[in-house]
Amino acid sequence: MVTLSVRHTADVPPADLDAAQALLQAAFAHLPPDEAFGPDDWEHALGGMHALLHDSGLLVAHAALVMRRMVHGGRALRCGYVEAVAVAPGRQRQGLGGRVMAALEAMAPAYDLLALGATDEGLGLYLSHGWLPWRGRLSALTPAGVVPTRDEEGYVLVLPGAASLDLDGELTCDWRDGDVW
Residues 132, 159: contact at Cβ < 8 Å? Predict the structure, then answer.
């Protein structure tokens, strides 16, 4: 039996958090070490909502939505940022990723926008769900000031919410350790 639950990190049983982290490491194990799922990536997924899809008690898909601040058009926007999306190897291309994404996308009204940094493998899923590529410049508000993040351009997608967005304008994310997007 396949079951979907959506819970805050504080309410996810420790065994499910461990299973989610292991699932993410397995799903990204084929990538070079500097792109594989690491401790900073897991840290980014904590403190928000988790969509967990179990099949007969085994975790087969996961996605998280955390609160971040984005600056756009002179405003600080409340952004729901999608992190740690993965489906267990061997269960991919069965619609499971779409189910966990839909659960998080249902929370869009709570935010000015949703955003995520897509991988090449996940891009099709997000585009099929109506996510839009950010066409403008990207940057990060770092301890040294605003720094362009040109390597991420073309990989950041948004799902507009309450805020008016100019997809050709600049979008600046808040600072964090590891990958800022």
Answer: yes
Residue 167 has pLDDT above 90, yes or no: yes
Closest CA to 170 of 155, 148, 151, 154: 148
- How would DSSP label each residue in the chain? -EEEEEEEGGGS-HHHHHHHHHHHHHHTTTS-TTTS--HHHHHHT-SSEEEEEEETTEEEEEEEEEEEEEEETTEEEEEEEEEEEEE-TTSTTSSHHHHHHHHHHTTGGGSSEEEEE--TTTHHHHHHTT-EE--S-EEEEETTEEEE-GGGTTTEEEEE-SS---TTS-EEEPP-SS---
Question: What is the distance between the alpha carbons of residues 57 and 1, in angstroms, rounded to a whole number?
Answer: 8
Alpha carbons 132 and 54: distance in angstroms, whole number = 29
Residue 135 identity: R
- The tens digit of pLDDT for each residue in 113-155 reads 999 999 988 999 999 999 999 999 999 999 999 999 999 999 9
Q: Is the pLDDT of residue 161 over 90?
A: no
